[in-house]
Every structure is written in structure tokens, then in C-alpha cells.
């Protein structure tokens, strides 16, 4: 059987001093050293990595990061160390706390006709940014498409997030989630929330699949789980993931009811209930032709135009004529209204938090 062993190569200006540093200060073991009479190379292993120190390397000083769940107890609590040979070692949290940046409120309109660039991201998917300023890093909203259907080159992975929504806009996609049973098909008009750190995988997509993905905060870590296989074990649909429960909302099971703004009606995805109020998600359509001015008290209110056409009026702003693929964010306290909507208007609204007050007029 072929054996393979990888080592990270770092320069050193003081190998003798580094031997004590790597074994005593960092708690690694020395696996090899040569030549015996005047050592210039030594290999150390520990903490999931093998390091080769080479006095003959002319590269600039190397850097290491050691992540631990006991920062205070490692290397006498030092946050950063420099070895005698020049290697800089940073000690940091194994699982740093999730930081939710304070929202920087702004009025945002993003139109598909403006030719915003599509960027190729993870697993070959195409991403279009719907909130370019990301409200100070508090949220990311992406329009994602996979032009060619078929198997998706994805791996079992998870995200360290506060909230994450996947709404199927066009086509369909096959997904599988930790503790949620067998793979299932997410059809257009339906959505799921991915609770924090739930393992999942994208399996197969139709031609020209399009989804809207919302993530909080904007910058969050995606980690690959090389151990878990999905589906896993018996289903456990009531399991909570950091206070949130997995939701697969199906349009055919939902009922329409009056919306928070008169003249509109919505189907509630019940995501607010399953996230303990972290976020709310509604699909909204026209009920009558008269939609009054209103203002909201939510921290973040994002809307994506799925079908139809409508004009967005904002107090003190020029009106925006919106079509499918357009999106907008209205800051709290700003008066807006929708006018001239076509009968087939359908909107996706995402709010954080899920429950908030609205003032009409």
C-alpha cells in the first residue's frame, strides 16, 4: 500500500533554539533530525500538522496558527510567540464566537438589468450579490444559479451562521440534511432554513436552477465534514440546532392571510416560530390595488421580486420600477409604498428579527 506523508516547510535561523521551542513551548514531538553532527533540518508533529524546519531555506519567516479550546492554558496563555528561528506562532480559539456586526442601515435597490456580475463560487455555482454593501457585514443575500443541471460536485459541509435561508426560485434541487431523513427535492416556491452547523449536501440540480440564499452575518465560515455520511441514522426532525429547528416549507401546504401592510397578503413559512423569532420569511402577493405608505421597525428588511412588476416609492427618493430578479432593502423608519403592481406580483420578504411593528400611513 502506498504511504504518503505531508510536511509544511519553514525556514529557521536557529534550529537548536527551535528544538526546545517546538517541543516544550508548543508541545510537539520531534520525529526526525539530520545530519547528526551539525543538524540543519528537523521535523516536528503535533496538533494535526507536521512541520519541517530547514536552516537552508532562504524564504521569509513562516507563520503558524494553533487553534485550541483552551487558549489560556496553552503556551502560558501567550497570544503570539516567535520562535528563536523566526517562526511566528499565533494562538487562537478553536471555535471563535460568532460575531454579528451591528447593522449599518441603508436604502438599497439592486436590479437585474444593471448587469451585476455573476461570480463563480463554491462547487461551481454562479453567485450574484443582492446587497453590495452588506449593511456593514450584517447580512449577505445571493442570487445563485447552476446553468447546467446534473450532479453537483458538493461535499458534506456546514456553516457557522446566525441564520441561513435557501429559497428555490426557479427549477428544483435535491438536498440531504443531517437528522432529516432521506434526500428530498426542493421545488420552486419552496424553501429551507439551514440551522447553525447542520450538516448538509447539494446532490443534484435541474437545468437553470436558481435559488436565493440569505446568510447572517455576511462573512461566515463554511467547514467540510469529512467523517459524516448523509443521510445519517433515523430522522430526528424535532432536533434543535443552537436554538433553531430545520424547516422545509412547501407552498402547497401553506395558507394565504392578510399581510402586515394592507393591500397585500402573504403565506407565512413559519420560520419565525422555528428560529425563536430570529428571522421571518414571507411570500407576498397583491390582494387589492391600493397599498398605502408604511414604515417598519425591523433591523433588516430585504425583499426580492420573484414575479410581476411594481414601482417602489421611497420618501425623498426617486421611484424605482422593479421586475423579476430585482431586490431592495428598506431601513427602519423609512416610509415606502408599492404602486402600479401587476396582478401576478410575487415577492420574497426576509426580516430580522422575525417579529416587528409596522406603521401605516
Architecture overview:
With 361 residues, the chain is mainly beta. It has two helices and 34 strands. The protein has a seven-stranded antiparallel sheet with strand order 8-31-28-33-26-25-24. The radius of gyration is 26 Å and the shape is elongated. It starts with 7 loop residues before the first strand and ends with a strand. The mean pLDDT is 94.
3D shape: elongated
Number of strands: 34
**Average pLDDT value?**
94
Q: Label the structural class.
A: mainly beta
Largest sheet geometry: 7 strands, antiparallel
Q: Radius of gyration from the CA trace?
A: 26 Å
Spatial strand arrangement across the major sheet: 8-31-28-33-26-25-24
What's the end-to-end separation, in Å?
75 Å
- If helices are DSSP runs of H or I spanning 4 or more residues, what is the number of helices? 2
What proportion of the residues is helical, as a percent range?
under 10%
Tell me the fraction of residues in β-strands, as a range.
35-45%
The low-confidence runs, each spanning 5 or more residues with pLDDT under 50, are none
In short:
It contains two helices and 34 strands.
Write the layout of secondary structure elements.
Blueprint: E1 8-11, H1 15-25, E2 29-34, E3 41-46, E4 49-54, E5 63-68, E6 80-82, E7 88-93, E8 108-110, E9 119-120, E10 126-129, E11 140-146, E12 150-151, E13 157-159, E14 163-170, E15 172-177, E16 184-187, E17 191-193, E18 200-205, E19 209-216, E20 222-224, E21 240-241, E22 244-245, E23 247-249, E24 256-258, E25 264-268, H2 271-274, E26 280-286, E27 294-296, E28 300-307, E29 310-314, E30 320-322, E31 327-329, E32 336-339, E33 346-352, E34 358-360
Amino acid at each position: 500500500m502506498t504511504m504518503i506523508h505531508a510536511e509544511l516547510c519553514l525556514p529557521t535561523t536557529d534550529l537548536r533554539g527551535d528544538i526546545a521551542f517546538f517541543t516544550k513551548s508548543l508541545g510537539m514531538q520531534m520525529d526526525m533530525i539530520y545530519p547528526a553532527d551539525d543538524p540543519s533540518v528537523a521535523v516536528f508533529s503535533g496538533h494535526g500538522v507536521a512541520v519541517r524546519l530547514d536552516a537552508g531555506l532562504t524564504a521569509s519567516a513562516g507563520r503558524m496558527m494553533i487553534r485550541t479550546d483552551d487558549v489560556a492554558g496553552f503556551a502560558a496563555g501567550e497570544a503570539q510567540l516567535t520562535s528563536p528561528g523566526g517562526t511566528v506562532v499565533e494562538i487562537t480559539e478553536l471555535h471563535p464566537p460568532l460575531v454579528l456586526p451591528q447593522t449599518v442601515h441603508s436604502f438599497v435597490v439592486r436590479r437585474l438589468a444593471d448587469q451585476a456580475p455573476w461570480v463563480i463560487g463554491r462547487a461551481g455555482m454562479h453567485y450574484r450579490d443582492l446587497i453590495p454593501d452588506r449593511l456593514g457585514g450584517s447580512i449577505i443575500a445571493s442570487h445563485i444559479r447552476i446553468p447546467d443541471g446534473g450532479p453537483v460536485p458538493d461535499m458534506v459541509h456546514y456553516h457557522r451562521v446566525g441564520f441561513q435561508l435557501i429559497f428555490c426560485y426557479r427549477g428544483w434541487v435535491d438536498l440531504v440534511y443531517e437528522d432529516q431523513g432521506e434526500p428530498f427535492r426542493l421545488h420552486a416556491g419552496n424553501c429551507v432554513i439551514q440551522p447553525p452547523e447542520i450538516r448538509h449536501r447539494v446532490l443534484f440540480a435541474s437545468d437553470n436552477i436558481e435559488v436565493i440564499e440569505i446568510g447572517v452575518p455576511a462573512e461566515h465560515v463554511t467547514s467540510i465534514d469529512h467523517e459524516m455520511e448523509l443521510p445519517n441514522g433515523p430522522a430526528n426532525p424535532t432536533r434543535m440546532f443552537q436554538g433553531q429547528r430545520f424547516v422545509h416549507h412547501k407552498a402547497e401546504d401553506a395558507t394565504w392571510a392578510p399581510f402586515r401592510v394592507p393591500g397585500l397578503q402573504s403565506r407565512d413559512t413559519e420560520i419565525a416560530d422555528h428560529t425563536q423569532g430570529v428571522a421571518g420569511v414571507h411570500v407576498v402577493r397583491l390582494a387589492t390595488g391600493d397599498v398605502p405608505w408604511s414604515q417598519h421597525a425591523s433591523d433588516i428588511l430585504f425583499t426580492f421580486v420573484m414575479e410581476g412588476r411594481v414601482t417602489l416609492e421611497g420618501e425623498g427618493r426617486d421611484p424605482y420600477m422593479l421586475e423579476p430578479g430585482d431586490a431592495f432593502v428598506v431601513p427602519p423608519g423609512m416610509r415606502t409604498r408599492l404602486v402600479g403592481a401587476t396582478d401576478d406580483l410575487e415577492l420574497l420578504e426576509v426580516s430580522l428579527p422575525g417579529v416587528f411593528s409596522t406603521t401605516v400611513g
